[in-house]
């Protein structure tokens, strides 16, 4: 105890005691040994690895971005092409539709005319047949009537026929003149 | 009172103001420790509290970095991240700044060890129970300054040869003309003798003063606890808290300065002669 007090009075605080010096060196060498030989090389390796991974990651990301860009452009081109194609098809369909309509209309017209013509012919034929039958019936009735009035002299068929025809022709001529 | 000036903590005495006993102020005796075991003065090989703290500090640093860097991961955990931040601070903030990346890489492990060793030894100052900055004993800063000095000198002579190294240390420059001998003497004295001394003493004195201040206010807080003195004891205690916070700052700064100076010495040795 007294020794220490004495030491405090006499000892220069700037003169290092040897035991403390030795312990200080030992303590530092322990720290330095562990850090320099094992722990710092460890972490340096990992730091390098990390930097490489980050750089690799950046490169990868850049590659992905370029790829995405090219794919996007490709899609855009395809989309434009598809739109173009659709427009073309629509146009074509429109044209085809118009043509078809035109054709159908022409066909309808033709059929209508045909039907009308057929009708006309039928009517003409019927009229002729009716006219013919009427002529015979009228002739027969007239001769029958005339025969009854003048006797049986008119029964000669040939004369009959001629007379009737002449009569009818006269009638027709009259009718036509009247028209 | 006179019996035990070394180990007595302020609270262990019953001495208060107005009790008729003097103020047991801190002094050189506050920095002397009895051996933890054995008889004082009987042997030159002893083991005291600062030694224990120094070795414990080593163990703590190694344990911390062991836990953080033993199996480091590319994606760091919390502990590894903290340790990396400390490592990177010394590596980039001090070594690369002064020595450059190329020349400095070799000295990174040494400087990192130095920084954390000094810092932890400083921080013991405010760790409860320990409460003593190991670097406030000149032997510890001196040991570290000696190592730096040897590295610095060997780099000087390895880089420049004997004559070149001598020129480097003396700031040899022909253009100075007749003043050259005077400059050389001053530079030699400054570089070779004063620098390592101031390097160690700067750290030692800062921690010594800081510890003395803390002791002063702590002892006063206790000593003043009597009568009207209680009011002043409160003020003194606030000062203890303020000084503790300030010391925390100074401890880091001094560790930084110590390593920065070590780097700048080596930088001077590596520099081409102008």
UniProtKB/TrEMBL annotation, chain A:
Compartments reported by the entry: Cell membrane
GO MF assignments: proton-transporting ATP synthase activity, rotational mechanism; proton-transporting ATPase activity, rotational mechanism
Membrane topology reported for the UniProt record: Single-pass membrane protein
Pfam families from the UniProt entry: ATP-synt_B
Annotated GO CC locations: plasma membrane; proton-transporting ATP synthase complex
Subunit description: F-type ATPases have 2 components, F(1) - the catalytic core - and F(0) - the membrane proton channel. F(1) has five subunits: alpha(3), beta(3), gamma(1), delta(1), epsilon(1). F(0) has three main subunits: a(1), b(2) and c(10-14). The alpha and beta chains form an alternating ring which encloses part of the gamma chain. F(1) is attached to F(0) by a central stalk formed by the gamma and epsilon chains, while a peripheral stalk is formed by the delta and b chains.
PANTHER family: ATP SYNTHASE SUBUNIT B, ATP SYNTHASE SUBUNIT B', CHLOROPLASTIC
Reported function: Component of the F(0) channel, it forms part of the peripheral stalk, linking F(1) to F(0). F(1)F(0) ATP synthase produces ATP from ADP in the presence of a proton or sodium gradient. F-type ATPases consist of two structural domains, F(1) containing the extramembraneous catalytic core and F(0) containing the membrane proton channel, linked together by a central stalk and a peripheral stalk. During catalysis, ATP synthesis in the catalytic domain of F(1) is coupled via a rotary mechanism of the central stalk subunits to proton translocation.
Name the UniProt record assigns to this protein: ATP synthase subunit b
Species of origin: Streptomyces roseus
Gene name of this polypeptide: atpF
